[in-house]
Amino acid sequence: MSDHSAPLQQPYGRAYEQMLEKVRYDGAYPTREKAEEAVRLVLSGLGRQLTGDERAELAGRLPVEAARILTAQIPGTQPLGGWAFVKDLAARTGASLATTRWDTGSVFSAVAAHAGPELLTRILRQLPCGYALLFGRAELTQARIDGPRLSGATVCR
Predict the structure, then answer these.
(1) Which of 133, 130, 134 is nearest to 156 (CA)?
(2) From the CA atom positions of the chain, what is the Rg in Å?
């Protein structure tokens, strides 16, 4: 006899499945479920940090399921720097800082692929220092830059 009280699982869209597979591959996760846990954790955290046009545009570029995770969060009033972001996620899950940093980098790699370089640059300008490295980009700490900006680099003040 079947259990009619169990909710039916909705299949994910192809784009979200591909995102999960990218995260699983990049993060060397043993199962898709582990990759999805990382996606949910990190996108929820990013949703608490990102605001404005960049948030809306990123949501529009992500698969629908990922966009829902991102936009379900209310942005916090106190922005967290990159390292504080990782520590916050680790505290929420009880995972080690090293594992959480790995999860963050794996998910942000997939997010960056969906965002594209121009939007990612705008996102990094909005976020406090420390996120560029999490997204796999160089981050320069300098009060002032004379001359042309370095392509792909973020300047923290």
Answers:
(1) 130
(2) 17
pLDDT in tens, the chain (157 residues): 444 444 444 568 999 999 999 999 999 999 999 999 999 999 999 999 999 999 999 999 999 999 999 999 999 999 999 999 999 999 999 999 999 999 999 999 999 999 999 999 999 999 999 999 999 998 765 444 444 554 555 556 5
Please tell me whether residue 8 adopts helix, strand or coil conformation: coil
N- to C-terminal Cα separation, the chain: 64
Structural tokens at position 100: 């959480």
CB 38 within 8 A of CB 22: no
Contact 66, 19 (CB under 8 A): yes
Query: Torsion angle, CA of 101/107/113/119, rounded to 10 degrees?
Result: -70
- Tell me if residue 116 falls in helix, strand or coil: coil
Residue 140 phi, psi dihedral angles, 5° rounding: -105, 135
Residue 101, Cβ density class (10 Å: 0-12 exposed, 13-18 middle, ≥19 buried): buried
Residue 64 near residue 19, CB atoms below 8 Å: no
